[in-house]
Design brief:
CATH architecture of chain A: 3-Layer(aba) Sandwich
Number of strands of chain B: 0
CATH class of the largest domain in chain B: Mainly Alpha
Helix content of chain A: 25-40%
Structural class of chain A: alpha/beta
Oligomer: heterodimer
Strand content of chain B: under 5%
CATH superfamily of chain A: P-loop containing nucleotide triphosphate hydrolases
Shape of chain B: flat
Radius of gyration of chain B: 26 Å
CATH architecture of the largest domain in chain B: Orthogonal Bundle
Helix content of chain B: over 70%
Radius of gyration of chain A: 18 Å
Structural class of chain B: mainly alpha
Largest interface: A-B, 28 and 23 residues
Order of helices and strands of chain B: HHHHHHHHHHHH
CATH topology of chain A: Rossmann fold
CATH superfamily of the largest domain in chain B: MetI-like
CATH class of chain A: Alpha Beta
CATH topology of the largest domain in chain B: MetI-like fold
Distance between the termini of chain B: 52 Å
Number of helices of chain B: 12
Order of helices and strands of chain A: EEEEHEEHEHHHHEHEHEEHH
Strand content of chain A: 25-35%
Number of domains of chain A: 1
Largest sheet of chain A: 6 strands, mixed
Chain lengths: 262, 310
Amino acid sequence: MVARKKHNEIIKAESKNLNFFYADGTQALKGINLPVYENKITALIGPSGCGKSTYLRSFNRMHDLYPGNRYEGEIILYPDNTNILEKKVDPIEVRMRISMVFQKPNPFPKSIYENVAYGLRVRGERNKRVLDDKVEEALKGASLWGEVSERLHDLAFNLSGGQQQRLCIARALATEPEIMLFDEPTSALDPIATVNIEELMSELKKKLSILIVTHNMQQAARISDYTAYMYLGELIEHDLTDKIFTNPSKKETEDYITGKFG
Amino acid sequence: MATKVMQDLVISPELAKNFRRNFTEKIIEFGLLFSAVFAVFITTAIVYVLVSEAIPFFQHVSIYEFLTDTVWTPNYSIKRYGILALISGTLTTTFIALLVAVPLGTITAIYLSEFASHKVRETIKPILELLVGVPTVVFGYFALMLVTPLLQKIYPDLTTFNMLGPGIVMGIMIVPYIASVSEDAMRAVPMAMREGAYAMGATRFQTAIKVIAPAATSGIVASYILAISRAVGETMIVAVAAGQQPNFTFNPVESAATITAYIVSVALGDLEHGGIGYQSIFAAGLTLLVMTLMLNILGHWVRKKYAERY
């Protein structure tokens, strides 16, 4: 087996020389080499348009939904040791193992219960008891159970923004993914809801690997173990979060985190 | 002093009300109000004419008889006035039309909104909408000369005039209404909702059926209501191909007249103005108006109940 270690961490997935082109020909990612460590939070920071969201969305092949987008290079998922960008790889299978939480809470027009059960139903689970158990477990995992256990069959839209986002996390959690992608998950939330989500992520990393895009540097510093700084589609620096925020090795990174730029 | 009451307020000419601007604004406002009131006025006028002509009719015929009798022969020597004989025709043809149009229209909408590429959609949609522009009398003869003979091959006892053929053709005619309005509703569902479903590992079909269609329910149901209203009010197809003999039946293989078919056949004949036969078409028209009004109220209610909340 290939050595999957770096920094004494186990690599869960890594991009190798990843390029990405939008349908109009713009190159949004330029040769990105970046590991995602198991049971760690990796944060992607950088100014708007630097490609951090594009990078994140490559992991569950979200770009496939829009015709004309093109990947080059590899994203290797372990332990399969498979390039998930390969044409022969089914994006649906990838999405079943790598789930995603979006910038704005996007619950489905269904009940709280059905939202969480959705991924399981998609996978063909019909047993009511199994569904009940997994829904409860996922809602507990997203620390939402206490607030909604009495009204599981209410419409999800009746929840507050922060609750909706935790519902989306529960929804993603229900299918027991190996990696969870967070695309600026707290940018639409108030400070208290943000703290809840951040605490939740620290809890979640015990079970899975997390890749998060954030435009909030304090957030990256608070919750992540590793931080990658991107600029104009390139990876400038990737290191332990403590190192990036106290003693970055690149001048550009320092300028960005000290607020001189961006 | 900040609290001092200001007296003899002087307004500098630069800040004074601009007369010209206010005047044009008023004219525009009046024009808009006029357009809005005009539509209301026309509707009221139609209702007025229908009601005023129907009142003498109902002085001859009791509402009870009108609504419960099942024979409609206002222009025969033995006069009977049972609107049910016409309503049954309208309901049967509408029902057949919906049986065709709802599945076909909804599936088309789902395909166009969730599956078709941009190019395919831009090709199919205009063609589909062209169907709306076909004169309905053409559809009527299409039903009479093509669909009914074809149906007779399957079911030889079918009479030349029947409700099945025109019902099916009417269904084809209203497919674009359902497809177009439903497709707009589904495309209006934010992309974030779609991405959410795909990110859960859903297929396109699962996304369309379980997430997009429920999110667009109000628009989809509105398209059904629009289609029903259209079918209930359709005249030429049924007048041409369903026969014009009032017949209290819900059996689609029999011939029957709808409310609209009766109105058009009587209105074209030469009838004594003010006679009971003449007045009967206004009573029938009023019935039609009440039916569509109820549908519109239902549509309004459904739209409110399932208003989009994404």
